[in-house]
């Protein structure tokens, strides 16, 4: 029944992890890796162990074997991003120490710059070659569509009233489209295996301008594609309990950065960034056919983002390349574990299968921050060891709780699902449908 109610469509609030750099315009960006689909989204992304609709091409490709009939799907998504900029304004105090070094104390005045993006996030076609044994799928997925624009007033030195950090404006547009093929195979009475191969294309246009004397500007651009893959397994531990495992190997992209100061252009410089791999374990339990309870544990290797760290202010011939390494060692992005919980209740209403779903999950902070607390930054100006800008303060680390809910209904050859996910940083609405091309 749950496979029938499963509508389809993949969305991806699974967003790309961004290149790490000390460019203000790219600071504190966090992108989430949720399982695709309105049905999955409504259950807080806990779907690895259930894996019984076509969105499993990305969530857990082994679950494709659960689909016995040819079908096509499409999905629409609308996401409102709050884009809170903690450092939109404020002040800083330098507490001088006897050694001649300084501690930093920041006073933040945040502001929000909300934006809304709407897109066709997913389309797929599923075909069972040998129903209940071999199923293949082809899909298109706009994994991410993100826009951010903000302006800051700068930070004032509390002692002198002069600007300690310059005002800036920033614009960022980014999208990731991918096309893929997936296959699921029944390897035994209790074991299903699957794999997905994707080709992802990244588009980035980022521009940040600081208004000082001289004025300086950073840019980052990309229009490049890379291959990636996912592997999945689904094990029926008992009649009503299934265990899912998924490993996602995400691509490393290339990009180009520039730095302009006083009208002089430095670069372009070739950059790279590795998007984080992940490993998920999920359990789905059905105490009776009408109820399902899902739990996912997802480990995301966000520290891989630091592999492509670059220094936004690099001037060829003016600074040694070691400067990039020196600054890199003062930042970190931690690997994090996410817990997701979801439930689904099925009922017949006037002869139609109807599902109601809910979920909750905790999103840990996974942006780049300094390894040193604000009050213990000891900057030796001759050494220039630390980047002291306020937008990488450990104080900005904030976890978020997401609450999700949704519903779905199945007609003769059409299923429709809707889902809504809410947190303090963004909210997302997804509407998806599946057309059954053969009798169910």
Strand order of the largest sheet: 1-6-7-10-11-12-13-16-17-19-20-22-23-24
CATH-scheme architecture: Beta Barrel
Cα-to-Cα separation, first versus last residue: 11 Å
Taken from the alpha-carbon principal axes, the silhouette is elongated
Strand element count: 24
For this structure, what is the CATH class? Mainly Beta
Radius of gyration: 24 Å
Structural account:
By secondary structure, this protein is mainly β. The chain has one domain: Porin (Beta Barrel), CATH 2.40.160. Helices cover 5% and strands 55% of the residues. The protein contains 4 helices and 24 strands. The strands form 4 sheets. It has a 14-stranded antiparallel β-barrel. The protein is elongated, with a radius of gyration of 24 Å.
Entry keywords:
four-stranded mixed beta sheet; 5% helix; 24 strands; 440 residues; Porin; disordered N terminus; mainly beta; 14-stranded antiparallel beta barrel; 4 helices
Secondary-structure map with pairings?
Layout: H1 2-5, H2 38-42, H3 56-59, E1 71-81, E2 84-85, E3 90-96, E4 102-108, E5 111-112, E6 115-130, E7 134-152, E8 155-157, E9 163-165, E10 168-186, E11 191-210, E12 216-238, E13 241-249, E14 252-261, E15 264-274, E16 278-285, E17 291-300, H4 322-328, E18 331-332, E19 336-349, E20 352-363, E21 369-370, E22 400-410, E23 414-422, E24 426-436
Parallel strand pairs: 3-8
Antiparallel strand pairs: 1-6, 1-24, 2-5, 3-4, 6-7, 7-10, 8-9, 10-11, 11-12, 12-13, 12-14, 13-16, 14-15, 16-17, 17-19, 18-21, 19-20, 20-22, 22-23, 23-24
